[in-house]
């Protein structure tokens, strides 16, 4: 069975698909915003916690690290933990949105 490439798509069906995808994206966005991600520096001197909206809720520094490192090195360790947290958040967000992205790609094909 061949389909007519010039046939008009069913607009009601398309609108329903868009509505469902919009609802799914909104549900996933709420889920992402409610997430909490925890990350550490390489040797666990610093631990950060951030929410799905990108706001950090805590940065904990091991007291031994405060005594062991100068301010410059300690700031690099904090930055490492922060960047690890942002990376984990990006990966977790992408994983949550992957099904919607794949679904949209299949509709386009």
Automatic annotation (TrEMBL):
Query: Which residues, by range, are in coiled-coil regions?
Result: 11-38
GO MF annotation list? DNA binding
Q: Which InterPro entries match?
A: YbaB-like_sf (IPR036894), YbaB/EbfC (IPR004401)
Report keywords, A-Z.
Coiled coil, DNA-binding
Q: Matching SUPFAM superfamilies, A to Z?
A: YbaB-like (SSF82607)
Its domain of life?
Bacteria
The answer on whether this UniProt entry bears the keyword Flavoprotein reads no
Query: Transmembrane region positions?
Result: none
- The identity of this protein, by name, is Nucleoid-associated protein
């Amino acid at each position: 069975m061949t389909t007519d490439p010039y046939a008009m798509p069913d607009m009601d069906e398309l609108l329903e698909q868009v509505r469902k995808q919009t609802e799914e994206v909104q549900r996933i966005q709420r889920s992402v915003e409610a997430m909490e991600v925890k990350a550490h520096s390489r040797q666990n001197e610093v631990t950060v916690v951030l929410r799905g909206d990108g706001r950090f809720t805590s940065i904990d520094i091991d007291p031994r690290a405060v005594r062991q490192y100068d301010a410059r090195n300690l700031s690099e360790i904090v930055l490492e933990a922060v960047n690890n947290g942002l990376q984990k958040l990006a990966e977790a967000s992408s994983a949550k949105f992957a099904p919607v992205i794949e679904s949209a790609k299949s509709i386009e094909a």
